[in-house]
Amino acid sequence: MTMGDVLRRTAARVPDKTALIMGEESVTYRQLNRRVNRLANALLGLSLKKGDRVAVLTHNGIPYYECYLGLCKSGGVMVPYNNLLRDRELARDLAYIRPRFIICESEFAPRVAKLMADQPSLEKAICIGAGAAPGMIDYESFLAGSSEEEPKTKVSGDDLMSIFLTSGTTGKPKGAMRTHHHNCLNALAGATEMALLPDDRVLLLFPFYHVTFEDRFCHLMRGNTIIIKREGNFVASEVLELLSRHRVTICQFVPTMLNSLLQEPDIDRHDLSALRLILYAAAPMPVELLKVALNRFRCGFMQFYGQTETGPMTTVLRPEDHQLEGPGMERLASCGRAALDFEVRVVDPQDKEVLRGQVGELTVRSEAATIGYWELPEETERLWAGGWLHTGDFARQDADGFVYIVDRKNDMIISGGKNIYPREVEEVIYSHPAVLEVSVIGVPDPHWGESVKAVVVLKPGLTASAEEIIAHCKEQMASYKKPKTVEFRDALPKSPTGKILKRVLRDEFWQNRERNV
Asked: What is the pLDDT of residues 126-153, one digit of tens each?
């Protein structure tokens, strides 16, 4: 089975049911399938071949689904690009994956036209909306001139479906490869874990370039109605209005979003009675916040833990595990047990499983996990050492198999659900002429969970302000990656070999905390 098969079968089963809603625009499953077929056939007419990578640089919207599913049916490989990245970052990531085509929203057309001059792999750009740059193909005209019949290309479950870009401690991009089989299995597991109902209505808030987008394909499989909100600043009043107006039954948040909803003065004015399940993931949930949310929303809560590489639905803290009283209450600090299609182990540095209760690295195994990183065989071998995927997270398991994330083996910062890689930020700060040394760490933040802090040593005789360092970062990278605070010191703690001891710096700010992530 492929994801193209999933759409075709759902459209045959519930053709007139509303599939996608955004603002005042909506499409039924029949309409969506026909437009997807038009795009797939148009791409094939452009000589796209199975396995060709296609970059997508747009905002959340109905066309995003068309692009994704059109590539599923044509045999192309979807490569979503973060639309917050600066030109330098986009050029780097495009050069790594070498897509043959790019589909972009008109807002990004001037940038894409500029980037294409230095990207020899890019042959054509397809522009969604008015304002295409010279030489670009108009998206709607592209679809209008193509057939709405099912494409003839033979796509199998083992074919590559998508490459999601992630980074390691170096900050360099790594493309996690996922096949149709991976995504179909993930969708089946998601539909089962959430006990999806035919009439469920889900609101999507996360950026579609994030791997959580693929986690929501279970709703297409079940024939649910999906309400789309453009990614960007989270405005609690707007989200509450959407939840109420569309009678949403399922929605996923990060803790900062839930906190904002709970602080909204007019929350009681909105009818949220249709909500039956709130999902939370992508950042640690403070237990006290979870207790308040459980009491206020009075619906089921479910936590997912995972990574771009793992699924991402890897462990699940199910609704029945969210207990506010009794001995089970301690499990609110866990991320649950292995999901339906996963196995988990906690291992020592020699890859030997540790005893329950002991801390080690969390390793996982599933057919839904990535097959590896695009053109990075050594990184892939390290990731899958011994046949288990190494998450880089330190964890422990209790006697019943519940997993508690204790710390991260690498230094990645999660701020408001977004992954930020210190090495990448450090490289930009090091380019400032006054900086001698820098260490970037995540520090506790009551709203974002973690925020980015740069600890800087200046060169003798030179000066710089915190505002100057932050502005320097903002000019060269996506704004969410820049430090929120900068602290200047005479020296950084180091090991006898001269390595900066990032852990020592972090411990200053995380003392007396229940969780160090």
From this structure: 999 998 999 999 999 999 999 999 999 9
CATH 3.40.50.980 positions along the chain are 3-16+27-155
242 vs 260: CA distance, rounded Å: 15
Which tokens go with 61? 């919207």
Q: Residue 498 contacts by C-beta under 8 Å, 6 or more apart in sequence?
A: none
Are 154 and 44 spatial neighbours (Cβ–Cβ below 8 Å)? no
* pLDDT computed for residue 168 by the predictor: 52
Strand partners, 203: 227, 251
Q: Where in the chain is the domain with CATH 3.30.300.30?
A: 413-510
For residue 365, the cross-strand partners are 343
Q: What does the DSSP assignment read for 198-245? A: TT-EEEE-S-TTSTHHHHTHHHHHHT-EEEE--SSS--HHHHHHHHHH
pLDDT (mean) for 452-466: 95
pLDDT(498) > 90: no
Q: What is the DSSP letter of 494?
A: B
Out of 3.30.70.3450, 1.10.760.10, 3.40.50.980, 3.40.50.1370, the CATH code matching 3-16+27-155 is 3.40.50.980
Fold (CATH) for 413-510: GMP Synthetase; Chain A, domain 3 (3.30.300)
Indicate the Cα dihedral angle 273, 312, 89, 394, nearest 10°.
110
Query: Is the distance from CB of 509 to CB of 517 less than 8 angstroms?
Result: no
User: Is residue 292 predicted with pLDDT exceeding 90?
Assistant: no
What pLDDT was estimated at residue 167? 65
Amino acid 257: pLDDT? 85
Q: How far apart are CA 102 and CA 99, in angstroms?
A: 7
Per-residue burial over 365-376, b if 16 or more Cβ lie within 10 Å, else e, is bbebbbbbbbeb
Cβ(494)–Cβ(502) below 8 Å: no
- Position 147 scores a pLDDT of 98
Q: How far apart are CA 272 and CA 396, in angstroms?
A: 36
**Res 349: pLDDT:** 92
CATH 3.40.50.12780-classified regions of the chain? 201-408
pLDDT surpasses 60 at 230: yes
How many angstroms separate the CA atoms of 88 and 67, rounded?
Answer: 25
Architecture of domain 201-408: 3-Layer(aba) Sandwich (3.40)
State pLDDT tens for residues 8-33.
999 999 999 999 999 999 999 999 99
